[in-house]
Amino acid sequence: MKNIYIISLSIIGTLILFSSCNKYLDKEPDNRTEINTIDKVAQLVGTAYPTADYLSFAESASDNAVDKGPGVGNSVDTRDRPYAWEDIFGAGTNTPSNYWNGCYEAIAAANQALESINTYKLGVKSDPYKGEALVARAYAHHMLAIFFATTYKIGGANDAPGIPYVTKPGEKVLQQYDRGTVKSTYESIVKDLEEGLSLLTETAYKIPKYHFTPAAAHAFASRLYLFLGEWQKAVDHATLAAPSGDFLNNLRPINTTMLNQSSGEFRDGFTRSDVKSTLLLANCYSTWTYNESARYGYGPSLTPMFNDPNVTGGTLANKVLSYSAANYTTYKWLYYFFYTGPGIGFPYIMQPLFTVDEALLNRAEAYAELGNYQASLDDINTFYSTKIRNYVPSSHQVTLAKIMSYFSISDPKEGLIKTILVAKKAEFLQEGLRWIDIARRDLTVVHNVIDAKGIETSIELKPGDPRRIFQLPEEVKVAGLELNPR
Amino acid sequence: MNNLPFGKKRPWDYQDSLFCKPLRIMKISTFLMFAFVTGVQAEGIAQKVNLKLKNVKVEDALSAIGKQTKHRFLYSDDVTKGAKRISLNLKDASLEDALEEVLSDNNYTYKVIANTITVNNIEKSSDKTSVVVLQNSVSGTVKDKEGRPLTGASITVKGTSVSTQTDNSGNFKINAPSNGILTIRYIGFKSSEISIGGKSNITITLESTDNQLEVVDVVATGYQNIARKFFTGSATRVDAKDAERAGVPDISRMLEGQVAGVSLQNVSGTFGAAPKIRVRGATSLSGDNKPLWVIDGIILEDVVNISNEALSSGDMNTLLGSSVAGINPDDIESFNILKDAAATAMYGARAMNGVIVVTTKKGRQTEGKPHVSYTGNFTSYIKPTYNNFDVMTSYDQMAVMIELKNKGYYQIPSASRGANGGVFYKMYNKLYEYDETTKTYGLKNDAPSQVDFLTRYANANTDWFDLLFKNSFVQEHSVSVSSGTEKSQHYSSVSYLKDPGMTIGNDVERFTGNFRSNYKFGEKLKAELLGNGSVRQQTAPGTVNQKSDPVYGSYYRGYDINPYNYALGTSRLITPYDENGNLEYFTRGYAPFNILDEVNNNYMELGMIDFKVQAALNYKIIPDLTYSITGAYRFSKSENQTFLKENSNYIQSFRAMQDATIVGSNDKLYSDPDFPNDLPISVLPEGGFYNVNLDNMKYYYLRQDLEYNKEFNGGHNINIFANMEMITTDRQAEFFDGVGYSYENGGLAVPFPKYFKKAREEGNPYYGMGYKFTRFNGYSMRAAYAYKQKYSLNGTVRYDGSNKMGKSRTARWLPTWNVSGKWNVDEEAFWIKNSILSNLSIRATYGMVANMGNATNSAAVFYNQTARRREIVDQETLTYISNIANKELTWEKMKEFNLGFDIGMFDSKVGLTIDLYDRRSFDLLGSIQTSGIDGEYTKIANYANMSAKGIEFAITGTPVKSGDFRWKTNFNFAFNKNEITRLDINPNIWRAVSNTGGAVNGYSQRSLFSIQFDGLDPQFGYPTFIGTDGIKTTNVSLQSQVLDYLKYEGPVEPTFTGGFFNTFSYKNFSISGLFTFSAGNKLRLKPSIAWAYDDMSVMTKDMLNRWIMPGDEKSTTIPALLDPLSATNIVSSSGTQVSAVYPYNAYNYSTERVVDGDYIKLKNISLGYALPKDLISRFKMSNASINVVANNIWTIMADKRLNGQDPEFFATGGVALPVPKQITVSLKVGF
Q1: B518: distance to nearest CA of chain A, Å?
Q2: Residue A377 counted as domain residue
Q3: N or C: which end of chain A has fewer CB within 10 A?
Q4: How far, in whole angstroms, is CA A423 from its chain's centroid?
C-alpha cells in the first residue's frame, strides 16, 4: 500500500511540474521590457531617430573641405577617403555604412512602434506617436535616399534603384529586400510624411526638441518638396515651420546673441535645446568632434566667405576660430561622452537636424522657383538681418541687382538660388547640409590636392559621376541588393 | 536481481558497482548479524567496571555501566520490555563480563561499535540462524601485503548470508562450516576467497588493486554510476591521487595533461582565474566552449559567466572565472571526463562542450574509528628574469631615444607637459625648478648637465622583475576526518590556504569546509547530506576592463598597474628610487606615478563566500524499482572592493591641474556646461574612491529519478532510468562607486556635488544593479539492454527547456537523443584468454547534443535606457531595440559519431584506449554582419556549421611492478582538427588578424590570418603591405571583409595536445613527472612595434635591428622610427596621406609578427619519500610522507621568437599573471 502511495505521489508531482513548467519558463531572463502600452510606444518612438551622423563624409566630400597640405592637420580615414571620393570600408563610426545602419535602426524602432499600436489596439491616444513614427520613418528613408540613391530628378523617370523602404519589423536573420526605384522610394516617403503629419500634436512630448513636433515635420516637408519640385508645398510647409510664421525672431541670432557670446559659451550653447531656431535635435554617436583638425577640412581658403563682404555688401558675424594655423573650426560642436559602464561609453554630439533657418531658405528657394522673386528676396533679407555684422537694412539689403553684379548672373531665378545656396553653405558649415544641396542641385565639387612636394592640383566631381552616390555597405549583398556602380 | 549490469548506482552508494552483489547480501544480513555476533567486537575493550546493584532494571544497569566505561547503549523499548530485574556485584570486571552478566539472563545479544553498544533481543531471529549458530567458529586476521591490519574488511561465508567485519586489529571471528569458503572484500583491494579447510585460525593477505584497471572502472555520469563494462560512451576517469598537483590550489589544473582530448591552457595564473579548458576542441564559434562542471551530481553554475575567450582578458571579473576555485583539492576523490555524445547524453542541451564530473570523498566504514589525515603544502615562487625576455637594456634604449630626440621627439612642450612622462619629461621640468634659497635651477640648461642627468638613467638598468616579483611563502593546510559504521558514514574536512602572491599587490586566503554523510535507514531508504562552503579573501592591483579599438587596431585599458605587464612594458631606464633611496615618481595621467607606491594605494579586495547544501533520498519501491530525489541550494556572494586612495596616481590625476596646459588637456577634469567660460575643475577635490562590485547567485536544484533494473533469465538485463530536473538560478550584479571617500581622514565621506552632476549628465550613475534569471527544465529517459557481459545497447532521449529566449515559446524546447552500443569481445567464447591482450571492447555511438548559445532574441528584445543627451533637462527614459526578432533562432546542435576501443594488456596492467570521432556542429551561433536594413547590423544568429575530426589515444597503467619497484604511466595525446563548413559572412580583417583569430569559412574555428608584409619603404623605412585590392599600400582597412589578400597562418587553438605522466617508486621513494605538449597552432606576438615611443615605455631588442638608413630594407624587416616630417610622407596606394598609426599597427598584425604555438613543457616533477612504518607507528601515525614538487618548471621547447614568454599566456594586463614557476614541499600525515 505504502508503495502505491509513493508511486502515485511522485507521478502526481511529476505531472504538476510538467504542466507548470511552461509557466515556470516564462520568466524573462533579465531586465528586458515589452512594448504593450502607449507609454512604452512613446518611449520606443523616441529612438526612431538616427543615432549616427553624416557629418564626416558629407562635409569631407563637399566643397566645405579643402586640402591644407601635408603635415597640416591629421590624417583620418573617415575624412581622407571621402575627400578623394573613395569608398570607406566597414561600418565604423562616422562612415556612410554606419549612417546607413543608424537610419535603419531608427526605421526599425518606428516599425516596431507601429506594429505594437496595431497589435495591442492602443487606439487614438496613441496617434501622436503613430504620427511621429511615420514621420520619423519617412525622414530616415529620405536621408538614405539622399546619400545612397540617385537624386530625384524633377520630371524625370526616376527609375534608378532607390533604397529599400522598410515598413515591417524584421523577423529573419537574412531578410531579402528590394531597392525599388527612386520614384517608389519618394512616393513612400511622401505617403508616410503626409499621414504622419496629420496625426502629430504639439503637446505629446516631454522633451519636444528631440521629437518630430509639427513644426519640425513641416521643416522636413519643406526640404522634401524641394527635392520633388513641388514648390508651393515647400513654401506652405516652410511657413508652418516657424512659430506663428515668425521667422525673424526665431533665426539663429548670429549677429547679436551669438556674436556676444564667448567662444566657450557659443560652443556650449549652439547645440542646446534652447536655441529657438533648432526644430529637431538628435543625439548621435559620433567621433566627429574627436578630430576637428583634419588635413582635409575647414581650411584658410574657406574663410573668405566669412571675412570678405558677401552679396549683402557686409560680412557675416560668424566666429572664425582656428585651433592652430590653417586648422579652422566653426566651434559649433561640443563633445559629449555618455558612459554605459565604468570607463566604457560612447561619444555623442547633439545634432540639429532641422532649423528655422533652413526652413526659411527652403521657402526662399521655392519662391524663386515659383517666380515670386520679391518674396524670395524678403526671406533672404530676413535671414541676413540676423547674420551680417552690424546689420543696417538700408546698406545690407539684398536686391536682384546686387545679386546679378555679385555673382555675375543675369537670370534672376538662377541668381536667387545661387544666393540662397551660398548663404546656406556658410550658415551650415560643418553641419553637413551642404552635401544635400550638392546632391539636389547637381553641383560640381572641386577639391584641391597638394602633394608631398607642395604642388597643388585639383580634382572634380561632376554631375553624373557615380561617386556622387555613396556606396552601400558591402553586406547588403546578402539581402539581395546590388551595390551602387563605381 | 543479483547482477547489476547497468550500474544501479546513486552517488551515496559507498562501494562501486562491482561490489554490488555482496553489498546486497550484506544488507540482507545486517539485521541478522546482531542476532549471532556474540560480542566479538567488545573483546578488545579493556575498561574495568565496578558495580554493586540490587534488583534494578536492565536499563539502569546498562546506564551505570555506560557511565563508567563511557559507552552509550542503544536499544529499543521492545527489547527491554518484560526483562527480569537483576542484581550485580562486579569488581574490576571487563566490559564484556559486565555485559554478559547483565544480559545473560535476558537472552540478549550486543555489539560494540564506536563506543556505542547496541543491544538486541536474541529470540526473534534465533530460529532462522539456529543452523548457523551451531556451526564452527573461525577466527583470523586480514592484512595487506605490507602486513598492516585492515580494519572494516567484510568477511562473508560463501553461499550464505553470514557476514562479519574485521576490527581495528584486522581480526575477525565468524561462524562457518569447516569446509566452507570465506569471501573477503575490502575497498581498494582484490577480493579474495579462502576455503576454511578445517582451520580455526586463518591469516588472509589481500592484494591491493592499485595496478588493476578494474578498480577505476566505474564511470560516474553525475546521474548514474555505471560499470565500465556496461558503459558505452567515451569517458576518462582521473583519480585525484594520481593527478595531484601539490601547491596548485585550483582543482581544474589537476586535469592538465592527464586526459586525451582535454586541453588546458593557463591563460592566467592568478588565483581564481580559470584555465581555458576544452574537451575535444571547440564546438561552436561564439559560445563559451567551456565544459560543464558537475560536482557530486549537481551542475556547478558559474557565478559570473565568462566565455573561454574572455578568460584571457585580465578583466576584474576573471578572478571569479574559475567555478571550482572554492574546492579544496584534498576533498576530491576523482574526476570523470565525459567526452562523446553517449557519455554526455544525459546532459542533453548543455552537453556539447563535454562534462567534467567531480566526485568528492565520502566517509568509509571504519567501525566508527575516525581516520584523520593532514596535508600541508609549502610553496615558494621563482622570480622571472630578464634573461628570458626581449627587453632592451637601459643603455641601448637611451641610444634609441637620443636618435628619436634628434628626429624631433621629446621636445618642449610636448615632452614636458604631456599626460605621461619619463626621463625627458623630468629633465625639462627640472630646468624650470627654481630654488629661492640657493638661487639656482634644478638643472642647468646646458649640454653637459643634461648628459649627466640622462647618464644616471642610461646606467640604471632597473630589474623590474626583481622589484615587483616575490618569492613568497605559500601555505596550504588541509585536515580531513573520515569515519563510519554500517549505517552511516561521514567525511568532513577543513582547509586553509595563504598565498602572499607572486608579485607585489597580490595576496590570497582561502578557507574551505566540507562534510558529506551517508545514512541507511533500513533496507529501503537511504539518504545523503552534503554541505560545503568556502571563503576567499584576495587582494589584487586595481584595474579597469579592457576595451577594443578596431579603428586603429589595438586593445587598451583605462589604466594598468599589472606588475607583470609593468615589468615587461616599462623601460629599464626608469628608476624606482632616486639617488637618496626615496621613491622616485614619473608622470602618468599628469600625476606622479611609482608602481611600488601605486599598488599600495590602488588595489582590489575580493571577498567571496560560497555555500552549498545538498540532500538526497533514495527509496526502493520494489526491489527492481528505485525512486530518488536530490535537492541542492547554493548561495554565492562575491564582493570586489576597489580602494583608490588619495595618494594613488589615479586619484591624483583627478586633481592634476598644475598649469593651464594641463587644465586644458586633462580629460579627468570637468567643464560644467552651465559655466562655459569657467576653467575645468576637479570633481574630486577631496578623498578617493571606495568602489564596490557585487555578484550574487542563488541556485536551486531539484531532481527526481526513477530507475528500473532487472535481470531476466538467460543473461538479459534491462535498465531504465527516467529523470526530471529543474534548475533555478538568480544572479544579481551590482556596483557602487563610493565617491570622495577620505582614507586620510578616517573614512570620512566627502563627495563633491558636481561629481554627481557630471555623472548624471554622462549617464554614469554611481550605482547600478541588474538581475539575470535562469530557469531550466529537463526530462530524460535512458533505456539500456545488456546481454550477459557481452553486448550492451543504450538509448537516451532528453527534452530540455529554458527561459533564455524570454517569453517567446518558439525555440524554447529542444529534444536531444543518442544511441550507443558496446561489444566486450573478450567475453566471447572464441576469445582465447591470453595475458598479452587481456581485454578488448569496442564502443560506438551516434547522437545529438546541444548548447544554448548566447542569443536570446527569438522575439524582439527591448531594454530601457536614458536618452544619451548632454543636458539633464533633455534626458528622458527611452526604450530601445536591443535585438530584433529572429524567429529562426534555435539552439546550437552537434551530431557526433564516436568509435572507441578499450584494450587491456598484460593482465590488465596496462590499458589502451583509442577513440575516433567525427562531429558535425550545426546551427552554430555567431556574430554576423547583415545588410542592417531590418535595423540590426550585427546579429547573433545560427549561421554556421562546423565539422571536427579527432583521435584520442591513451595508455595508462602500471607496466612494472616487481618487488619494491613500481612504474606507473599515463601517456595520452589527441589530435583534433576542425573546419568551418558553412559561414554566411566572414569576419572583418581586424577579427581575423587579432590574437584570438576569426571564424572564416573553410578554415578552423579560430583562424589566425596576417596582413601580408611587403617590405619597408626604401626611402623612409615605414612598412608596406598588400592591401585589400592586392596592391601595395600602407593603409589596410581593418574593417574590410576582403580577406583574399591575407595570409592564413593557422589555427589559434592547438590541434595536437597531450601529456606524459610517470611515477616510479622504489620502497619508500617515489619520483614522478608530468610533461605536457601542444602543437599545431600559431600565435600573434604582442603588438609592440610603434612608429615612435614615449620616454617611459619599453622597447624590444628587435629595435636594434631596425631600418635606419636607405638600403637597410634589404637586410631588416623592422621598420624605422619616424620623425614627424617623414611621417607625412606615408601615402596610400592611391596617393592620399596616411597617418603613421595605420602602417605601424598593421605591422603588428602582419606576417612578421606570428610565431608557432608549439611547446613541450615539464609541468611538474615530484620527489617523494614515505616515512618508514616503524618510525611513524611510534607517533601513532598510520602513514606519513614528504614530497618535494616543482611546478611549471621548464619550457623545454617553444618558438624562439617568443623570447621566453609563455606560449599559453597572452599578457593582457589587468589581473592576469602568468603561471608561476614554483617549488613546493608537501607533507602528508595520517592517523
Answers
A1: 22
A2: yes
A3: N
A4: 19
Facing residue for A112 by CB, picked from B881, B988, B1038: B881
Q: What tens digit of pLDDT does each residue of A93-125 get?
A: 899 999 999 999 999 999 999 999 999 999 899
B458, containing H or E segment: helix B447-458
User: How remote is the C-alpha of B1155 from its chain's centroid?
Assistant: 28
Mutate to test the interface with A, among B879, B929, B1034, B1091 (most CBs of A within 10 A): B879
By DSSP bridging, strand B1221-1230 and strand B371-382 are antiparallel
Cβ separation B933–A177 shorter than 8 A: yes
* Residue A484 belongs to some domain of the structure: no
Alpha-carbon distance B1088 to nearest alpha carbon in chain A (angstroms): 22
CB contact under 8 A, A343 and B545: yes
How many residue contacts between A and B have a Cβ separation below 8 Å? 308
With beta carbons less than 8 A apart as the criterion, state whether B308 and B335 touch: no
Does B673 sit within 8 Å of A334, measured CB to CB?
yes
Which chain A residue is nearest to residue B988, measuring alpha carbons? A90
User: Taking CB atoms and an 8 Å cutoff, what residues of chain B touch A473?
Assistant: 931-932, 937
Backbone phi, psi, residue B1121, to 5°? -85, 130
CA distances from B112 to A224, B46, B976, B1209 (A): 100, 13, 58, 59
Contacts of A257 in chain B (CB under 8 A): none
Q: Which residues from B are below 8 Å from A166, CB to CB? A: 933-935
Which residues of B231-329 form beta strands (DSSP E)?
235-239, 262-265, 276-279, 292-295, 298-300
Residues 6+ apart with CB under 8 A from A331: A263, A266, A267, A270, A319, A321
Contacts of A86 in chain B (CB under 8 A): 1134, 1136
Considering the domain boundaries, does residue A486 fall inside one?
no
pLDDT digits (tens, 9 = 90+) for B1008-1026: 999 999 999 898 899 999 9
Domain contains A1: no
Please name every residue paired with B794 in a beta bridge, in sequence order, or none if there are none.
B784, B820
Q: Is the pTM of this model over 0.90?
A: no
Q: What are phi and psi of B1204, to 5 degrees?
A: 85, -10
Q: E strands along B158-232, which residues?
A: 163-165, 171-175, 181-185, 192-195, 201-206, 218-220, 225-227
B718: cell is 534491462
Instruction: Tell me the pLDDT tens digit for each residue of B675-711.
Output: 888 888 999 999 999 999 999 999 999 999 999 988 8
Beta bridge partners of A281: A352
Confidence of residue B411 (pLDDT cuts 50, 70, 90): confident
Q: How many CB atoms lie within 10 A of CB B452?
A: 11
Q: Is B934's CB within 8 Å of A170's CB?
A: yes
What's the CA gap between B980 and B973, in Å, rounded?
Answer: 23
Cβ–Cβ below 8 Å for A31 and B935: no
Q: Which residue of B has its CA nearest to A282?
A: B869
A89, A169, A477: residue with CB nearest B1037: A89
Residue range(s) defining the domain that contains residue A16: 6-479
Which CATH number belongs to the domain containing residue A47 in this structure? 1.25.40.390
The residue ranges of DSSP E strands in B462-544, in sequence order, are: 474-484, 488-499, 507-521, 525-541
Q: How far apart are CA A242 and CA A214, in angstroms?
A: 10
Residues B617-629 pLDDT 10s = 999 998 889 999 9
Contacts of B360 (CB under 8 A, 6+ apart): B295, B296, B327, B331, B332, B333, B491, B514, B516, B530, B532
Shortest CA distance from B621: residue in chain A:
A3
Domains held by chain A: number: 1
Separation CA B255–CA B144 (nearest Å): 31
Q: Please tell me the distance from the alpha carbon of residue A108 to that of residue A104, in angstroms, as a whole number.
A: 6
